[in-house]
Model the fold of this input.
Amino acid sequence: MKPSGPARAGQYLALLAYLVFLVFPFLWLISTAFKPPRELASLHPTWLPKDPTLANFRQAFDEQPLLRAAANSLLVAVCTAVIALVIATPMAYVMARHRSFLSRAATGWVVVSQAFPFVLVIIPLFLVLKNLHLINALPGLTMVYVVWALPFALWMLVGYVRAVPRELEEAAAVDGAGRLRVLVSVTAPLLAPGIVATGLFAFISAWNEFFFALVLMKTPERQTLPVILTHFLGAEGVADLGPLAAAAFLATLPSLVIFAVIQKRIAGGMLAGAVK
Done:
């Protein structure tokens, strides 16, 4: 049954309120990034800057090594996404196609691992990385992010693999295709949207992660962008709002751009994968 007129209007109103709730902080961040100090200190803040300025961006780059921190974050996030996909994709296929006690145990591990808080594992994790000489090292941070992103990535990919009909693989096998040919020509195109979505999740989670980077990265040369943003806070917790907003705005752009580009490819991949 189609919803009635008032019900449909209520749905659109709720959706609009949710969009405003999501977009407002980002729009306010942009507005703050372009406001001069005089407007930031005003007791009557305005929605839009009356005298827009780029001084906050210049000050942010002068005060903190944002480019180096962004390069560290980008390197760690890309490596995390690639390694997590390389490990999770074959595991997800085996778990989805060959259900056994081992696959059920792995699924239980995925669920249980998501319930552990960061604080519970940080001390043993720190000791393990110290013994491996990976404290204050980007490979060590990447290893942590891969381990943390792998359970959810595996859970996502298992769902995508189970959505691929077995009949397609069986039909290709009947036509004479071997197992590798079936996986490459039939299964992989259908899994492409899921792989892209999972890689995007792993990338964004590593790009935005703060707690592990704060504990494991000791020197500013190795710190990632979320940690560098905390340097705009004074000794007494007073934030330098203008440069902080400018740096935070720049930190959010890669995730937004990547999602804007990939979300079209996800939809296109779904259609392309369904065509032999």
Q: What stands out?
A: The CA atoms of residues 15 and 55 lie 36 Å apart. Residues 268-276 have pLDDT under 50 and may be disordered. The chain has twelve helices and no strands.
